[in-house]
Amino acid sequence: MAEQAGPTLITSVQRAMRLLEAVGAHENGAPAKQLARETGLPLATAYHLLRTLVHDGYVRKLDDGGFVLGDKLQTLKSTGRAQALLNRVRPTLAALRDELTSAAYLTFYEEGEIRVAEIVDGPGTPRVDLWVGFEDAGHATALGKSVLRELDVEARRDYLSRHQLADLTPRTITSLPELLRRLETAPMAPAVTDLEEYALGTVCVAVPIYSGDTVGSLGVSLPVNRLSRLQEARERLLPTASRVTRSLSLTI
């Protein structure tokens, strides 16, 4: 019997990774000749790979000819950290979905926008049709209103000054004074609801969560014929949100 072949490896990718490791080992940068020597690469090969890495933003060339890690790698590092955080809380969201038989959602307020970070749904618990992006529908979703309710007055005013209160359904709140009044007097506080304000036939409830100083929200969506279960969903969301916040606050 023939010996099973090993995996196919791309030599140029391996060389580029070795170069990145070598560049990362020099905080103040290192010239191409030194990097080629440390990685055992021919100088011409090192130059070609470094030029490509510089072009794509993974490496930056200094004025003195040295090379340091580029901004794109920092972006990848931040993205990797965010993925690791989501991996921590995804099982909790899945348990919430299964217990309430509803899709579960997680959002964060980042760079002045309310963004969906995770949705955990399933064949029997479909997500709401995101026909309008959450960035433009914070006023009409329980998840968005939960975030807005947690923001301080200045941050809330800034967000609302940049986002039109679009009329998404006949139930959408399009009056700014009325929206602010409802945020302050939410009857299920600290939970807030969306009663067919984003999509007809769907109701939602959400509560705040935090990742360090970053505010977010945790919520579920239900068909309108299960409106009577919103209070039950609220009671399950509150302790779950506390667990999510604790998980997100742990240092990676």
Short description:
By secondary structure, this protein is of the alpha+beta class. The chain has eight helices and seven strands; from the N terminus they run H-H-H-E-E-H-E-E-H-H-H-E-E-E-H.
Strand order of the largest sheet: 4-3-7-6-5
What is the overall silhouette? Answer: elongated
Task: State the share of residues found in helices, binned by percent.
Answer: 40-55%
Order of helices and strands: HHHEEHEEHHHEEEH
State the distance separating the first and last CA atoms.
47 Å
Number of strands: 7
Compute the average pLDDT.
89
Instruction: Give the radius of gyration.
Output: 24 Å
What's the helix count?
Answer: 8
Class from helix and strand fractions: alpha+beta
Range of strand content: 15-25%
Largest sheet: 5 strands, antiparallel
- Which regions have little confidence, pLDDT < 50, spanning 5+ residues? none
List the helices and strands and how they pair.
Blueprint: H1 11-24, H2 32-39, H3 43-55, E1 59-61, E2 67-69, H4 71-100, E3 103-110, E4 113-120, H5 142-150, H6 153-162, H7 176-184, E5 192-195, E6 202-211, E7 214-223, H8 230-249
Antiparallel strand pairs: 1-2, 3-4, 3-7, 5-6, 6-7
